[in-house]
User: What shape does this take?
Amino acid sequence: MSSPSYPLVLDLDGRRVVVVGGGPVAARRAMSLITAGALVEVIAPWVCEELALMVADSTLTWHAREYAVGDISGAWLVHTATGDLATDDAVAAEAEGLRMWCVRADNASRSAAWTPAVARSADGILVAVSGGRDPGRSRAIRDAVAAALDTGELPVRATRTRRREGPGTVHLVGGGPGDEGLITVRGRRLLAFADVVVVDRLAPRGVLEHLSRDVEVIDCGKTPGHHQLTQDQINDVLVDRALRGLDVVRLKGGDPFVLGRGGEEVLACHAAGVRVEVVPGVTSAVSVPAAAGIPVTHRGVASSFALISAHDGIEPILDAAREHSPTTTLVLLMGVRLLRDSAAALVAAGRGLDTPAAIIERGWSPRQRTTIGTLGTIADLAEARGVESPAVVVVGEVVTLREQLGIFGTEIE
Assistant: This one.
C-alpha cells in the first residue's frame, strides 16, 4: 500500500525553482516548470542538448558546476535528477532540513513529492494523475483522460457564470448522417462547451443526452406536437443567443454546406456582427449509400457523381441528366415525394428504363432499409413498400455493386 499523499496544484509563476542535473529527465522537468512560469535554475557540470537550447534562449539560468550545499536555499521547490544516488540523497536531505519539497527522479519511494502525469485542455482544464508511484500507469490514465477531454466526453463545460466581453460564437456543426458515432471530434467537443444547442430533426440526437442540464436545447425540426421554425426564425435565434454572450451550436444532419442552408445562417450572423465557425460533417449523400453497400463512384463503373436536391422540383434533375454522361451517378436528396416524376424525367432526358436505382431509408439507423429497382420500376416498388423520408435515392450502375460488396446484412426488410 502506498503512503498517504495530498494532491496540490502550485502557482510557480515568478518563483525560483532549482533543478539539479543536466540530462534529459532534468530537461523535461525544467521545461514543465518554465511552462508554469517558474524562474528555473539548473545546477550541473554539463547539460544535454535540450537544456543547452533553453540556456541559449535565456529561458533558464545554468550554473555549470557540481551541486553544493546551500544551492537550493531560498528556492520554493527543488527537483533532483542527477543519476547519482549520493548527490540526489544530499539534495533531498538539504531540502528536508529547509522544509522544502524535493522531487526525486531516481527513486519515487524515497521522494517527498512527486510530479503527476498531466493532461491539459486549451481552455484551462488541468487533470493531474498519480498512479501510486507507477509512472507508466499514470501516463496511461493521463492519455485516456486527455483523449476524453479532446472529444468532449467529459463534462468540461464551465458551471460558474462566465463574464464575456461582446457576443458569443455560433458554431455550425455537421452531425453526420444520424449515428452519433459519426460526428467529428471537433463537433463533440463544441457540444460539450455549448450554452445553447439549436438542433435539426436529422441531426444525431443521441448526443443531446450527454449535455449538461442547464444547456438550452432548441428543437427546430418537425416532431409530433412541435411546429418547425422557419429559416428566418432560426437565424434570429442564433443571433439573439450569441448577442447575449452565449456560445451556440447549430447542430445539423450531414454537412452544414451540403443542402443544409448553412450559408444563409453564416450571412445572418455576419450581418449582426456575430463570429461563426463551420465544422464539416459527413454528408448523407455519400455515407448513406455507402451504408447500403453502394459506392457513388467505382473504377470502371462511375468516375463521378452529381448531387441534386429533388425537393426543388424536376428542373434540377433534368438539368443534371442533360449535363452529365449516363455513367455519372445521380444522388437525389429529399427525393421521395417526387420520386415518380423524377424517374420519368430522367427517362425523358435519355436515361434508360433499365437504369439501376436504389432508395435507402433512414441510413445509419437500426431501421435502415434499401429498395432496389430500375427507373422503370422504382416508383411502384417504393409505393408498395411504403417508402418514407428521410431517404437517399441513387441512380446509376453503381447500384449493381451492392450484392458484390455485401455490407448490408443488418438492414430491415
